[in-house]
Design brief:
Collagenase (Catalytic Domain), 2 domains, polysaccharide binding, Cellulose binding domain-containing protein, CBM2_carb-bd_dom_sf
């Protein structure tokens, strides 16, 4: 019997209608494979607005970030400084890490997410040398951000607008410094005008803080130390702080009257809060000040950000636990093991050991020097005005407010007083 070899059998041909239907199904399956899911097609992006107020060796930057993509469970903002001399010193509303020129900011626990369409505001104090340009590129979770585009205004016929006038001392100002200091004072003020890019627009000098409070100033103490503080030591620190601040106010008073319209012969200093890591270091149980425990920023405890004028220069303290009366204009930041000091419109930072050694001194010169920066007075590291060799704002050359410092302070008042109606 012979056997026929059978090859592979072909499937029977489909009728034309069924063949078209099968082709359509195959095309749909292919499309489902090739078209990405809605999740994969979610648009991602961000907008960043960066502004900075700069002075000779330092600056304060504000960064507003808007998430125009999907919700982020953990946000991370990165940028590179253009100059190696730009350094973050103190930041807020995030944890800052700088490696060379690269800076990374991440959200703190409980504040790490960023909803779609939401914005967050960051900021930091920095130092610079050489140049201080704004970063050109920001990345949010690896996505390059754009700068917000302002809306296009409707066409308007051109109309002349007056240029804002630079405040100048009024006629009849009692500007009568000692003749030997006049040239140096003129040089110092011209230097301020040449190096402060927002001299008259900046609105958080100590002058502004005192005026906003109607003649007083509020402080928070940031105690960056495990050293115990008794009620007696607390009160001595408060008294010493008030005594040093008064020395600057006294420089504006002549024969019991404010010089050149300065309205306050005395400016009370109120310490409204203490911030610590561990409540046990504070050896008192009265309620004379608010106590903030465990809120750490930049490695140091801080009083409630909602109470900070530095962060709420619009005067909105609605989130402050103690209300507007318990807001603080500046911080006295006391750091274990620190030498030297730092200061600005945010307050003063000095070493704990130095403060304890100097607590009952008539002049705590590092603290006085840093307070001077709050009023706008500059450092003089690389030049000295003519006719003067030693004065407090030239660090290390004097241990108290000198006549030159006093007249520099008065020069600031006579140039700024018009903004307060004097």
């Amino acid at each position: 019997m012979s056997h026929r070899s059978h090859g592979p059998r072909r499937p029977p041909a489909l009728p034309p209608l069924r063949r078209l239907l099968a082709m359509a199904i195959a095309m749909l399956i292919t499309a489902a494979i090739l078209v990405p899911s809605a999740r994969a097609r979610t648009l991602t992006g961000c907008e960043v607005d960066y502004t900075a107020h700069q002075w000779k060796t330092g600056f304060t930057a504000t960064i507003t970030v808007r998430n125009i993509g999907a919700r982020l469970k953990r946000w991370r903002l990165e940028w590179h400084f253009a100059d190696p001399g730009q350094t973050v010193i103190q930041g807020w509303n995030g944890d800052y890490v700088q490696d060379g020129t690269h800076v990374t900011v991440t959200g703190r626990p409980g504040e790490a997410s960023l909803d779609a369409g939401a914005s967050l505001t960051l900021g930091f104090n920095g130092s610079w040398s050489g140049a201080n340009p704004a970063p050109t590129t920001f990345r949010l979770n690896g996505i390059t951000c754009t700068r917000p585009v302002p809306p296009t205004p409707s066409p308007q016929p051109p109309t002349p607008s007056p240029q804002p006038a630079t405040p100048t001392p009024g006629s009849g100002d009692p500007w009568t410094p000692p003749a030997a200091l006049a040239a140096g004072l003129d040089q110092a003020w011209r230097h301020v005008e040449d190096t402060y890019p927002d001299l008259y627009g900046f609105r958080n000098y100590t002058w502004d803080q005192v005026m906003a409070n109607g003649g007083s100033i509020n402080y928070c103490v940031r105690w960056e130390s495990d050293a115990p503080v008794s009620a007696g030591l607390r009160d001595r620190i408060h008294a010493s702080l008030a005594r040093q601040f008064k020395k600057w106010v006294d420089a504006l008073v002549q024969e019991g009257v404010g010089w050149n319209g300065w309205p306050y012969a005395d400016v009370p200093v109120r310490v409204v809060g203490w911030a610590v890591r561990d409540r046990d270091v504070l050896k008192w149980d009265d309620d004379s000040v608010d106590v903030y425990v465990g809120d750490v920023a930049d490695g140091a405890p801080q009083c409630a950000p909602a109470c900070s004028r530095f962060l709420h220069q619009d005067g909105d303290y609605s989130g402050c636990p103690g209300g507007a009366e318990r807001h603080y204009d500046m911080s006295l930041w006391v750091t274990e093991g620190m030498t030297g000091g730092a200061g600005g419109d945010w307050g003063q930072r000095i070493g704990r050991e130095y403060l304890m050694e100097s607590l009952d001194s008539d002049d705590i010169h590092i603290l006085l020097h840093e307070m001077g920066h709050g009023f706008g007075l500059d450092d003089f590291y690389d030049w000295t005005p003519s006719g003067v060799d030693a004065f407090l704002m030239k660090a290390g050359s004097a241990r108290r407010i000198t006549e030159f410092d006093r007249w520099m302070l008065r020069d600031w008042w006579r140039h700024l007083k018009s903004r307060y109606g004097f």
